[in-house]
Amino acid sequence: MKAPDYPHTRATLYADARPATASTAADRWALRRIRAQLGAAAVRLALWDGFVLEPARGPALGTISVRTRRALFSWLWDPELNFGEGYMEGSIDIHGDLPRLLEESYRALPSPGARPWWRSQPVNDVRAAREHVHRHYDLGNDFYRLWLDREMVYTCAYFPERTASLEDAQLAKMDLVCRKLRLQPGERVVEAGCGWGSLALHMARHYGVTVRAFNLSSEQIAYARARAREEAMAWRVEFVEDDYRNITGQYDAFVSVGMLEHVGKPDYGTFGDVMHRSLNGAGRALLHFIGRNQAAPLNAWIRKRIFPGAYAPTLREVFERVLEPHDFSVLDVENLRLHYAKTLEHWRLRFDRSRGAAVAMFDETFARAWELYLAGSQASFSTGGMQLFQVVAARGAANSIPWTRVSG
Amino acid sequence: MKAPDYPHTRATLYADARPATASTAADRWALRRIRAQLGAAAVRLALWDGFVLEPARGPALGTISVRTRRALFSWLWDPELNFGEGYMEGSIDIHGDLPRLLEESYRALPSPGARPWWRSQPVNDVRAAREHVHRHYDLGNDFYRLWLDREMVYTCAYFPERTASLEDAQLAKMDLVCRKLRLQPGERVVEAGCGWGSLALHMARHYGVTVRAFNLSSEQIAYARARAREEAMAWRVEFVEDDYRNITGQYDAFVSVGMLEHVGKPDYGTFGDVMHRSLNGAGRALLHFIGRNQAAPLNAWIRKRIFPGAYAPTLREVFERVLEPHDFSVLDVENLRLHYAKTLEHWRLRFDRSRGAAVAMFDETFARAWELYLAGSQASFSTGGMQLFQVVAARGAANSIPWTRVSG
User: For the structural domain made of B126-395, what CATH number should be given?
Assistant: First the structure.
């Protein structure tokens, strides 16, 4: 299976070859401009002919090598997009610890609010949403099985101890979600965006609730349904291959883990409407999503190659558009960004161990895109560029809300 | 001592007297209009001559009696302001459980977003802030001692068990604040709005930090300083009689409990600037404030008689104006509105027990104003009209933030 939109074979082309030409004064000027943008980052920059710029202070943590003139000027022209393009195709290479070097660079860059104006984002109608989901989540269950945990949970885990295994941390996360929702046996839950179904099955098995779980990814839904049958849970958990906008019925709890990022800002009002009409008077909602401290579009390269249509909102944007219109009351917010950095570290190390298999399934370019995505995301969470929020909300007038909160 | 702006003596005037005139068709029409506004609320309405409107359904929980035509039409004309005015002066009276009846009425009223447009709020410059603080917090320490806890904490308590005493719950709240801030011995803390100094002293005594605590109320500052000297804590806790805008220096923690309500929305940017310049790179901030689910001015009567210049913001307003401009990261939000309803219940019962002393210090009108304020606030928190938020924030790039959160 080939992933769409990943130009292939070029990475191997550039891996060992160097252009014959020596770097010019213009090339070196361009590299100095990039050096200036990276400020104090302890990163060495190198051109194809061996020309090198050392960091302003201290020893370098590693080297970013530019192998072609085109990659050099593309990077300078639009760093947010073209650093990733160059890395993916192999015309930019990195020697050293990838996430560590990216952290160094992210800390040196200006805040995401200072992005160019042309980075706008279109509305995700149902068709676009389906296409976006297909491009990422239908890469094949075999691919995700290479590097996800046993339960196939593709969202931030919760590490009660930093040394916990990924498997344990994903179970702890699912438990944390259930406990924050105060699930009671016999209650009805609706899940908007259910991945491979692990949370829905966990809620039904351990908390005695019935679940209707929605997802647009046919591969994920097929996997989840098979699992529900195998585990004799199909009578308690219904997996629906449909858009969250088509949720019907009323429930005691509404849960959405890692989907709001794909809803797109223009549709937050709709998302709030769905939450509102789906919850009964004593209903609770838990939203788990990647967010930001300040509003800004998602990294352009990530949107082009990894998550088309995705957006990481601020709490303010979610509260304003999703919760306030329906008088929802925010009960509880927790920021788990360090947990996501740790989760991504686990995924990246597992991906590295299975890299050969990923290249065999797709190609070298795909593998490079994914290693950059995983390392870059880890660096974004560890440097505070991205946040992971869990928000619990209830109806404003609901007095069945808890007096004390749970902790992990 | 007389509190400013509390018209006195009228309450006793109306307490036993009834106007001689019988109610007219217009009076009864007005009462029916009020009845309609109260919708399904199980409240009986009565006029001075014995004319009564029963609730639409079920038995009444109590009776609201209108004793004068002026009070009747004033109430109808501007219920938000004039119900309180009438109650305070005794021309409106309530038979039955005051907070219970107010809860019934609040549940029936439209959401606060539907308020008239003329309810605007002026900016609180330093002079206005000083005047507002003086009017409320300088009523005299003897007055507050009548009904506050031993530590004189005039903010929402935290009840680990619902049956905890107010004294224990205030200690638990102070501990919760310190634990959320992860105070370490030797750290420096600045407090914006310190009341009678209980939290500052608690932090210094039990967490080994040094504190600079700011407050505009000269009565409170004098009390706090005396206490610091008595408890031999003056070397660790400095009480400064000044506006929070004049905070200088850099600190490990910034804490503000029950002051943001008095800052006024136009000054949130300034408040954020002060927080920003006061915190070092690893600094943490805790904001504890009365808030709302949807933006709306504070009740007009409360602003006229109890808290001039006060405003209860949404989380969105605080995040947008205080935290986002400086890339603060929201780590943790907890909503304690049920704890505030319980705190207010304690205060109200204690106030009732000391009512005679309050009347002797001020007068009957003052006592009625305060019993309405305490009962109305209790009802606002118990019905979800008001929220109590504790927000913990840190610098976006700070990685000393905790992995797991505390709970009460």
Answer: 3.40.50.150
